[in-house]
């Protein structure tokens, strides 16, 4: 396709993008929105039972979240200590002997 908008040949069509003169009318698109006054995102934030619900949901997800972070922390701690040791005088002497 060519970018010339003024093509006179019947078998050539212009590229349909922003800024061109002969864009087809858009039809059949429905847009729905909700008023900000109707959303009320913090309606039940302080209501009865909400704190207990947060505690219950956190307790049920504890074993899915904490062990991977704990393993990651321990691996990073081990790697940092190993790196510091290998870059010290004692570590360099050990690697040269071995």
UniProtKB/TrEMBL annotation:
It is found in: Mitochondrion inner membrane. GO terms for cellular component: mitochondrial inner membrane; respiratory chain complex III. It comes from the Eukaryota. The chain crosses the membrane at residues 62-79. It holds the Pfam family UcrQ. It is a single-pass membrane protein. Keywords: Electron transport, Membrane, Mitochondrion, Mitochondrion inner membrane, Respiratory chain, Transmembrane, Transmembrane helix, Transport. GO terms for biological process: mitochondrial electron transport, ubiquinol to cytochrome c. InterPro entries: Cyt_bc1_su8, Cyt_bc1_su8_sf. PANTHER family: CYTOCHROME B-C1 COMPLEX SUBUNIT 8, UBIQUINOL-CYTOCHROME C REDUCTASE COMPLEX UBIQUINONE-BINDING PROTEIN QP-C. Component of the ubiquinol-cytochrome c oxidoreductase (cytochrome b-c1 complex, complex III, CIII), a multisubunit enzyme composed of 3 respiratory subunits cytochrome b, cytochrome c1 and Rieske protein, 2 core protein subunits, and additional low-molecular weight protein subunits. The complex exists as an obligatory dimer and forms supercomplexes (SCs) in the inner mitochondrial membrane with cytochrome c oxidase (complex IV, CIV). Component of the ubiquinol-cytochrome c oxidoreductase, a multisubunit transmembrane complex that is part of the mitochondrial electron transport chain which drives oxidative phosphorylation. The complex plays an important role in the uptake of multiple carbon sources present in different host niches. Belongs to the UQCRQ/QCR8 family. This is Cytochrome b-c1 complex subunit 8. It comes from Capnodium sp. TTI-000886. The gene is capN.
